[in-house]
Amino acid sequence: MALSTLAARGLPLLTPSPANPHAPLGKWLLGTSSLVLGMVHVGGVTRLTKSGLSMTDWKPLGSKPPLTREEWEAEFARYKEFPEWEQRQHMTLEEFQYIYFWEWGHRMMGRCVGAVFGGGWAYFTWLHRPKPPPPSTLASATSVLPKNIASAIPPGYQSRLALLFAMGGTQGLVGWWMVQSGLGDDRRGDRTEIRVSPYRLAAHLGMAVGTYSFLLWTGLGALSYPVDCYAAAGNGARASTGASKSALSLLQQYTKGLAPEALRHAQRTRLGVLSTVGLTGLTILSGAFVAGNDAGNAYNTYPLMNDRLIPWEDMVDPQKQPKWRNMFETTATVQWNHRVLGTCTAVSALGAAGFGLLHPSSRASASANAAKTVLSSTTPQVRRGLVALGTAATAQMSLGIATLLNYVPISLAASHQLGSLVVLTCGVYTAHSLRYAGRSVASKVGSGAAARLVNGGAGVGGGGMMPKGALAVVSRVANVKI
């Protein structure tokens, strides 16, 4: 494929089934990830409405809710046997029904997600078979599709699906383990409001976010599998022969066509995006400790906390032993951690977006001769992702400040938690779009421009033998650590 076409198209996600036999799997995975995102959002509302301890038992397959008044009164009487009732004795049956339905809905939604994933996995494993693409599609295809594709599940993806299924099953167990921390008799007589353990809440949320991220990454991988792994169309490869195994994929062509400085810029941009994804994950976990300690209802000013940037005297409770517990259980420390991590995430996202979009290497150029096109260090997909990441992180920080200043209303708090997943989604998409800058890809194909420098200006794949020393140059470029 010509470099001018590569520069214009980048590395697209292939959603039409004729162009990508793995597209149905990818779309199903992305659809399942959206269900997980919705479940996390409902779980946040369940916590904000203080509904999490309304169901005092757990059945793996679930159960129908009470339907008659007698059933509701029996369920309410069971709730009164547990410690939370001691602090909520003013509650009416109607108020109990409200919190019960939030918790019941959250649990049943998790079971529905498990059924969707398990059913889809079985369907794609045993029933679904890709249809051969029509000739009209082959003529305009991005990649040369092998003729022996017998499954929509790409090689190596079965183990990923098994891991995702195990993560989903474990999530239910972790959720009940979390709820149990608020139901035990050791909580009777608590002077503070009875809540689940913030450590278990963080584990439950972290597991959900990890499952969502892995679903999203795997779905994007399925949609881009032909671009990444099959020989690019127009490079002389034929699906019926072994030539396609040695021909370069579109992903490898893009990496090979990058100039050394462009490759270095792409790798540094990828490092910045991955750092932002990591900071986003840490900020989400710190938010779980804010919620678990109800720390959002204190220090409702910004940027100062009681007129100080760092309220030292409030951050360490001498009665908490060992002292490290203050990091996760003291209101001032927990909220300060979340503020700092949220700010660092927004700054990191804006820095990565600015560095990726404004650097000279991020702009492609072309002369009258299309063969001399210089590939941009950022594809169109990366540029869209960077814009979305910077925008989402800025909006999320603003939403977090508004939530704090307004004393954590349910609507803003739930939107703030959902916004964190939007930032994470943008980061994961952008990092996936930058996969051509990964060390594994660069080490296989090197940088075509590095070879041109040694060759005295020969084009990519120009056909001449690489002079002595060129391999060392390519190796140095390809093995830049990220």
Strand content: under 5%
Give me the Rg, rounded. 27 Å
What structural class is derived from the secondary structure elements?
A: mainly alpha
| Distance, first to last CA | 28 Å
Order of helix and strand elements from N to C terminus? HHHHHHHHHHHHHHHHHHH
- Main sheet attributes: strand count, strand direction, barrel closure: none
Mean pLDDT: 86
Shape: flat
Helix coverage percent of residues? 55-70%
Tally of DSSP β-strands: 0
Number of helices: 19
Low-confidence stretches: 236-244, 366-370, 449-482
Textual characterization of the structure:
- With 482 residues, this protein is mostly helical.
- It is 61% helix and 0% strand.
- The chain is built from 19 helices and no strands.
- The chain has helices at residues 3-9, 23-48, 69-79, 93-127, 135-139, 157-180, 198-223, 225-229, 243-246, 250-257, 260-292, 312-315, 326-329, 331-358, 380-405, 410-433, 439-445, 448-455, 470-478.
Q: Can you summarize this structure?
A:
The protein is mainly α and 482 residues long. The protein contains 19 helices and no strands.
